[in-house]
Design a protein that fits this description.
mainly alpha
Length: 220
């Protein structure tokens, strides 16, 4: 029979997993909107994400209660503290996802210039959401997580490279078409949110590795 502390840990782990699945679900909806160029998909994604903060706060309260009431051993303590940080990273990913969805609705309304960068945006989004998905998937894995961590790092690196290419193209277009200056900068700001999502995914992956293996925690 599991102790109360073990039961609480299992519940917290499951709740974080469910929170992650909601984010992944919204990410899929956003990808469909990006492919189809349909604003309604972005609104649907924002609705899916509307309770993320409230659910993350509930998980954090459970973590704090566990820290206060149960005599957690070193490994359990490490796990609880890491989960507290992971929920924060998930909320930040959600913020970037919402911001991306909101801005994309504006870009679609001005499709005359955004379509030039659409393929780059699709590839960048695929890398970013792959990093998010892989990092969340690490939470429930029974192995040491090293393979999944490498996948997250690869996707994060790809997102960095794709953003750099996109930035170069947008700045080049900005030099040729001064009338679109503000619009081009807004696109770059929107795409930056995807790169940040990938960065947050690496932070989650490092936290999961810390839970599994201990050692020194390095998020940056």
């Amino acid at each position: 029979m599991l102790s109360r502390n073990e039961e609480k840990l299992d519940k917290i782990r499951d709740d974080i997993g469910q929170l992650g699945f909601v984010i992944i679900d919204a990410g899929g909806v956003i990808f469909e909107g990006l492919k189809k160029f349909e604003s309604k998909e972005f609104e649907n994604a924002k609705n899916i994400l509307k309770n993320i903060e409230a659910n993350a706060n509930a998980i954090d309260n459970d973590i704090i209660t566990s820290l206060a009431l149960f005599g957690a051993e070193a490994k359990d303590l490490r796990e609880l503290v890491s989960y507290l940080k992971i929920t924060n990273e998930l909320v930040r990913i959600t913020d970037n996802m919402r911001g991306f969805a909101k801005n994309m609705a504006v870009h679609i309304a001005d499709a005359g210039y955004f379509h030039i960068f659409k393929e780059y945006a699709l590839q960048l989004y695929k890398s970013s959401i792959s990093a998010v998905t892989a990092s969340i998937g690490m939470i429930d894995r029974d192995d040491d997580g090293e393979d999944a961590y490498r996948k997250v790092k690869v996707e994060e690196s790809k997102s960095d490279d794709l953003y750099a290419i996109l930035e170069k193209n947008i700045l080049g277009a900005l030099g040729r078409e001064l009338d679109f200056g503000a619009s081009h900068i807004q696109i770059l700001s929107t795409m930056r949110k995807l790169e940040k999502m990938a960065d947050r995914s690496v932070a989650i992956a490092k936290l999961v590795l810390y839970v599994k293996s201990g050692g020194e925690l390095k998020l940056y």
